Structures are given as structure tokens and as C-alpha cells.
């Protein structure tokens, strides 16, 4: 028997301490020992590029996330730079420096190039803002590095290292905020979010990515300006939402979205779960339950060689969406109990609709909706063990999503009743044992009828058409119920079925 996932206890959700060592202060050049260790691994080609810009009379600086990550002790992988040079000048320098150069971002002032394995993107100092009612930012070139940093989203991302000398430029106290574990904007938060409303989503994303708190004025601006997100394209919002979910602490980002009303715009189904809070305690708090399921599902993800390598977007989305059908299906019975009959199927439809609105790809929509639809299938197994037929159908219906369904189902157990939790865990252990046994006996992962479409047509003397599909489904149901029959018995069953319907 293979190792199976075990549902962990809910986590506290406390914010992790900042990865910057509080007592580690910058040296004369503004760098900490941790940052210096990370920056030693920067490619020599980047320093060479800095010298080329300087020789041409221009400034070049490593900016934003790479600088932040260096202070966190993480080797910068995205080599994003800013320059005083205009795109045409940048392009000429980078063509002379690199093995390949591209200008796909030239309209926004960005030129990319590769030298060996090193890829660098350089953007002209700029400012940008959204015009009223526009979904695209208007770009204007700036004239200084400090001005370029001032227009960035948060102070921890508004630090730069001048190249090639690696001199720190930190006009807004980004290092101190990094040590404190807070998100603050370089200018007034309301102005920053008005310039680029997507920054509202970025605040939630960075809370999840870095585990940071947001300053009160940022929180207030998110709340007041959440409706401005409607002018941002769904694709850009979805990209930030994905990054939030794939971050180390997605619960923090989701709670921030709900608290500020951002979720009302981006993911109203999550906000609506708060409506199910029952002051009479007749059922669990579905909103808190959902966030706990997400955390438990994350803990059940595996390493790169396991069946569900983390971070897994499909599993995390399914955890968020699995109960969104409950508000629409809640019913209070005369005896005071509460039911949510059909919330799995209703939730699957709601999931697909929301994911389409956020412009997720078709396969991810299909997979997440299917997991939401199947997440209740296991319930009842603990009361009465399934037949082999039911186990086969469970596996066949889950298909390639089976390992994710295992984890979603286990994560869905959040009861504080230890006896009930143990019973459900033992029942699922038993189901997984049954699946493993049948898989060994019947190659369960590849269940198909004993006859394929061509064989069905040959046996019945018919051509392609609906009857072949009906016959195929009949043989599939028979396969589920009886297990492998072999071709001879399958042919006999097929002809009996054909005769019973009059050969039509």
C-alpha cells in the first residue's frame, strides 16, 4: 500500500516573521551581509551591461523585486532594470551586449535581451496612470531613478541598486518596511491606487507572498477604491489572483480581499460565504471552513516527485470554490436543522461561471469544476462500504483528478469532533485501499469497455452514429458493475442488448 495523505490540524494563520534579520543593518553602500551574499551570484554579464550604459552616458539600475529578494537572501532570477536611456538608445546598447534582443515591450519603454543564459529586461524611467474609464495605463517617460521608484506600487519594491557599482537607492524607506513586515506605498495610497488600480490586487498578493501586514492607509484605500478594479482587464486581475493562491500564505491575501471588499468585485462568491454564518450554531461557519480547507489542502500537496506537486493551482482553486453553492442552497427545516442539498452541483456551475469571467483557460475551468462537483461523492462511504462497482465509478469519474480529489476530500474534514474525524479518516483509508486493490487486479486507471467502437460496429453491422455511443455506454456500465468480462462475454452481452431493443 502506498503512503496516503493525512489531513493535518488547522493552522493558526499567524503572520511569519520577516525574513530580514532585524539586527542586520546596511553597510556604507546600503547593503546588508545577507544581500551581499545573494548579490555575489549575479551574473558578470549584468555588471558588464551596467558599464556599457555608463559609458554611453546613461544610468542603469536593478530595480523592484530583485532588490527586495536580495535583502531576503534570495538570489534574484528576474533581472529587471530601469534606465535613463530611451528605448531606441537602450535597444542599441543591448544589441551590442547580448546574443539576442527583442522589443515586444517597446511601446511601454521595455527592451529585452539575452546573453548566454542570462535574460535582462530594461525599461526607461517612467510614470503611468489610468485615464478615467480606461483599461490600459497611459505611459510617460520619467527623468530620474527616484521619480521612477516613486511611481512603484510599494516601498519594499521601490528600492534600486545602481549598476555596475551596486549602490543602494532607497528613497522611501523600503528596507525599514521590509524589516517591519509591512506594505506601504511610496506616495499616498489613494493616489497610488488611482494611478494603477491593479495595485489593489497586488497588495493582497504581496500579503500572501511575503506574509506582510498592510498599513492602515493602504487598507482604507483598498476599501474605498475596490470598485476601480472594474476598469482593469480580467486577465490582469486573474494573473494577480493566481499568484496570490500560489503564494506561501494565500489565506492572508484572501482574508484581506474579503475584509476590504475587493472580493466583492473579484470573487463575490467567497464574500457570500459569510452570509451563511448562523448565530444559532446549527451549522459550521462556511467561510472559516473554506479557508481552513485551503490550508489543509496545501499541507497535503507533495514534493516534485509526488502525485500532486505543490503549489498546485487546481487543488487550491477547488478548495476555495468547493462550498460556494451553499448560500444558494441553504434551507431551514421545521425541526431546526439546516441543509445544503445539491450545493456540489450548483457550486460546480457557479465555479465555471466565475472562472470564465476571470478568463481562466478551459482545461483549468473543467478540472476545478469537476472537483467541486465530486467533492461530496465520498460521503456515505463511512456508513456503508461501497460495492466494487461504486469504487470503479468513483475512480473513472475522477479520472486524472483522482489524487487531487483524495486531497480535497481529506482537507474537507474540519470537524473538532475527534471521534468523527478519526472515523472519516479511517473510512477514506479503506477506500484508498480498495482502489489500490482493484487497480492491481483490473488496471483501474484505464477502465474501458471490453469492446471498442470499431468492434461494436463490426458486431452489430452498423456504421458510425448515435447507436455506437449508446452501445459503448452500455458496455461501460456493464464493466463498472461486473468488472472485466473479456471480449467473448462482452459480445454476448452486446448482442442481448441489441436484440432487446429490436436491433435498432
Main β-sheet description: 7 strands, mixed
Strand order of the largest sheet: 3-4-5-2-1-8-9
CATH topology of the largest domain: Beta Polymerase, domain 2
- Any idea what the CATH superfamily of the largest domain is called? Beta Polymerase, domain 2
* Count of individual helical segments: 24
Backbone structural class: alpha+beta
List the helices and strands and how they pair.
Blueprint: H1 33-39, H2 44-55, E1 60-63, H3 65-71, E2 79-83, H4 87-97, E3 100-105, E4 110-115, E5 118-124, E6 126-130, E7 137-141, H5 145-150, E8 160-162, E9 167-169, H6 174-180, E10 182-183, H7 189-195, H8 198-210, E11 213-214, H9 216-225, H10 234-246, H11 250-260, H12 262-266, H13 268-272, H14 286-299, H15 313-321, H16 326-329, E12 331-332, E13 338-339, H17 343-357, H18 362-374, H19 388-398, H20 402-411, H21 418-442, H22 453-460, H23 466-482, H24 487-500
Parallel strand pairs: 2-5, 10-11
Antiparallel strand pairs: 1-2, 1-8, 3-4, 4-5, 6-7, 8-9, 12-13
Task: Please describe what this structure looks like.
Helix 8 packs parallel to helix 10 (234-246) and helix 15 (313-321) packs across helix 20 (402-411). The strands form four sheets. This protein has a seven-stranded mixed β-sheet. Helix content is 50%, strand content 10%. The longest helix has 25 residues, at 418-442. It has three domains: 33-259, Beta Polymerase, domain 2, CATH 3.30.460.10; 267-446, Hypothetical protein af1432 (Orthogonal Bundle), CATH 1.10.3210; 453-500, no CATH class. It is α+β, with helices and mostly antiparallel strands.
